[in-house]
């Protein structure tokens, strides 16, 4: 099967630097992720997530600073609420919950970043390609009526 | 209740305590009502309170400048509180004329029950727990729960909690949460693919008139993402993919502000069961954060508040 395409919204203060560190420390992780730098995980509007899926990306990863470590004090707490709501709601709509993933990765956690991308890519391979917005959607489970 | 409203409203205008009164007057179509916005005390006698005052008038508060007296049912008062939380409405400039709401009657349900169109129905009256429908001089009665809107059946606070004048006794509305969530339960029993295809079918009918957004008191952005030209998030041409994206994102954006007033579903010209989205979001918010929109005007809005530890399983 084709390789899953993953878009990552990474906070510039932590996860983005974490991704850099993964590179400079020569950690291996799948090349499926395309990274978009955002000023804070709190910048990520659920609209971005839906738009990525609409464009055909198989999954979205939102990654920010650990709770208590936000550069703007509260951005990641707000992101946490928003992502939690979005995830539940997308599941209810019939979108596989694995397509939206989130993680806390600090600037010193290059290893964790590599692990997260590896796991998310593995998840997305299991879920299969994103056919949500195509005219014919094939399910892994029950075929649609 | 109606007379008390007229007395109060007239007094407010004549004493100069408010610049405008927002309420309901009889509509141009049978049984329906339409919003009345006036600064003239002579208009006040047109104000009505009946089981068809369905609109959520709180939306007008966002645009009207000056001091306003507004008629509000339980859900409307919650929308007003939610707007106060978001600093869209100044509590000191609003006088809430609270209507303890016995539940609103859906004319569509009445027509189905009576087997007649609304023009052929002579009268619809409510007698406690019964609804009496008169056709050709013959009266028939049904339990009122059969004609109430679905969102009224799931109402938690029919009597306004935030008001300046309460126009009657506490509402005795008997609710039926299961009946109110019927569509959601049906959807939850389906597979994810079936659910998605259900929404795909429904949103193929959407003509993107934006009535749902325009009527919604929780949708108050001065510029909505759907109208952004750069980046253009969705195509202006109605196609199911973008229709569905629009409504999904709209629902997430109004999370914690939506009071399940059912306004979006009532105005939808394509009869898309939008409450199956808004009510589910309302319940998700309640489950995750024990937050009910518009119940506490001093609370921070849902999406700007946080606890240090919550929903830990969301992030890796």
Describe this structure in words.
The complex is a heterodimer of chains A (145) and B (316). Chain A has helices at 15-24, 46-54, 75-93, 110-127; strands spanning 6-11, 33-38, 59-64, 100-104. Chain A is an alpha/beta fold. Chain A has one domain: Rossmann fold. Chain A has a four-stranded parallel sheet, sandwiched between helices. In chain A, helix 1 (15-24) crosses helix 4. Chain A is globular, with a radius of gyration of 15 Å. Chain B is globular. In chain B, strands 2-1-3-4-8 form a five-stranded mixed sheet. A three-stranded antiparallel sheet of chain B has the order 5-6-7, with helices on one face. The chains are: A alpha/beta (145), B alpha/beta (316). Chain A binds chain B through residues 45-47, 50-51, 54, 67-68, 74, 77-78, 80-96, 101-104, 116, 119, 132-133, 137, 139, 141-145, and chain B through 187-188, 190-199, 225, 233, 241-242, 245, 248-249, 251-253, 255, 277, 280-281, 284-285, 288-289, 302-306, 308-311, 314-316.
In short:
The complex is a heterodimer of chains A (about 140) and B (about 325). Chain A has a four-stranded parallel beta sheet with strand order 2-1-3-4, sandwiched between helices.
Oligomer: heterodimer
Q: What is the CATH architecture term of chain A?
A: 3-Layer(aba) Sandwich
CATH topology value of chain A: Rossmann fold
Whole-angstrom Rg of chain A: 15 Å
Instruction: Categorize the overall geometry of chain B.
Output: globular
Q: Tell me the number of strands of chain B.
A: 8
The overall average pLDDT of chain A, rounded, is 93
Number of strands of chain A: 4
What fraction, in percent, of the residue positions of chain A are helical?
25-40%
How are the SSEs ordered, and which strands pair?
The complex is a heterodimer of chains A (145) and B (316).
Chain A: E1 6-11, H1 15-24, E2 33-38, H2 46-54, E3 59-64, H3 75-93, E4 100-104, H4 110-127
Parallel strand pairs in A: 1-2, 1-3, 3-4
Chain B: H1 2-14, E1 20-26, E2 33-38, H2 59-63, E3 68-72, H3 74-85, E4 94-98, H4 107-114, E5 121-127, E6 130-135, E7 138-143, H5 150-153, E8 165-166, H6 177-180, H7 182-188, H8 192-204, H9 211-215, H10 240-253, H11 263-267, H12 275-289
Parallel strand pairs in B: 1-3, 3-4, 4-8
Antiparallel strand pairs in B: 1-2, 5-6, 6-7
């Amino acid at each position: 099967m084709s390789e899953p395409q993953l878009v990552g919204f990474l906070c510039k203060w932590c996860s983005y630097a974490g991704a850099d560190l993964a590179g400079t420390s020569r950690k291996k992780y799948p090349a499926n992720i395309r990274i978009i730098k955002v000023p804070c995980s709190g910048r990520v509007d659920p609209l971005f997530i839906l738009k990525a899926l609409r464009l055909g990306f198989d999954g979205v990863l939102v990654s920010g600073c650990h709770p208590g470590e936000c550069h703007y004090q509260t951005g990641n707490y707000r992101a946490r609420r928003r992502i939690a709501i979005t995830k539940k709601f997308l599941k209810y709509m019939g979108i596989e919950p694995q397509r939206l993933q989130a993680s806390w990765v600090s600037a010193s956690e290059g290893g964790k970043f590599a692990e997260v991308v590896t796991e998310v890519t593995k998840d997305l391979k299991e879920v299969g390609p994103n056919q949500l917005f195509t005219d014919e959607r094939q399910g892994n489970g029950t075929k649609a009526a | 209740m109606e007379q008390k409203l007229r007395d109060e409203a007239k007094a407010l205008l004549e004493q100069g305590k408010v610049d405008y009164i927002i309420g309901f007057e009889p509509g141009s179509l049978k049984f329906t009502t339409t919003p009345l916005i006036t600064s003239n005390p002579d208009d006040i006698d047109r104000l009505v309170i009946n089981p068809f005052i369905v609109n959520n008038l709180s939306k007008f508060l966002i645009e009207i400048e000056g001091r306003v007296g507004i008629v509000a049912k339980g859900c409307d008062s919650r929308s007003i509180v939610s707007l106060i939380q978001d600093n869209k409405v100044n509590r000191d400039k609003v006088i809430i004329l609270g209507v303890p709401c016995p539940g609103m009657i859906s004319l569509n349900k009445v027509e189905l029950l009576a087997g007649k169109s609304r023009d052929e129905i002579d009268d619809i009256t409510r007698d406690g727990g019964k609804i009496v429908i008169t056709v050709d001089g013959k009266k028939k009665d049904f339990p009122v729960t059969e004609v109430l809107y679905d969102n009224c059946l799931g109402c938690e606070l029919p009597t306004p909690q935030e008001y300046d004048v309460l126009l009657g006794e506490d509402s005795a509305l008997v609710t039926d949460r299961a009946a109110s969530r019927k569509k959601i339960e049906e959807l939850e029993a389906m597979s994810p693919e079936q659910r998605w295809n259900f929404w795909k079918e429904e949103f193929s009918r959407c003509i993107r008139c934006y009535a749902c957004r325009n009527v919604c008191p929780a949708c108050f952005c001065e510029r909505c993402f759907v109208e952004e030209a750069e980046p253009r998030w969705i195509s202006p041409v109605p196609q199911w993919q973008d229709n569905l994206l629009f409504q999904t994102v709209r629902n997430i954006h109004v999370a914690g502000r939506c009071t399940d007033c059912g306004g979006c579903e009532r105005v939808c010209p394509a009869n898309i069961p939008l409450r199956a989205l808004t009510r589910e979001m309302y319940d998700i918010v309640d489950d995750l954060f024990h937050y009910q929109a518009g119940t506490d005007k001093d609370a921070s809005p849902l999406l700007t508040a946080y606890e240090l530890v919550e929903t830990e399983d969301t992030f890796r």
